[in-house]
Amino acid sequence: xxPTLRTERLLLEPYLSxxxxxxxALFQDTRVSQWMGDGTASEAADRALFGRIFTxxxxxxxxxxxxxxxxxxxVGHAEIKPNDVLGGHEIIYALSPxxxxxxxxxxxxxxxxxxxxxxxxxxxxxxxxxxANEASLTLLDGIGFEHVQDMKEDDGSTTHVLARxxxxxxxxxxxx
Length: 176
Hints:
5 helices, single chain, 8 strands, about 180 residues, alpha+beta, 8-stranded mixed beta sheet
């Protein structure tokens, strides 16, 4: 099970079975899902994905996946997991549109990156982003990610690969 992480305004903790409706609502919101994986999936597929978090990811301790809460309410989703194509770990995050525009995305991404560096002992973390997702590109640039390459997808589209490295001092680039 992933550890519980706290930021100034967010709580990242393992999902509970009662989070299913909130998870499905987040992933069914096309404003969110258009930027996730292959885009919006069916409700049944999102329910199956939620089930696999418990039966596969948590049961086999594959990687860290969190429910993101603010004031006790589920407002997002976060992961840090191995990406074999990139040869490292990738962060994934999503927030409900009701949580957009207040800096929570930056807070969330920083928490996942810090977990990767401080707990997992990583020296580099990746993020993959659709070039049209300007909000995510701006957020990641603001916290020290740099464009390292583009990947061609099976459908002919391009995905930006960004990376953030731990500094020689052992601190993240934005650490005090």
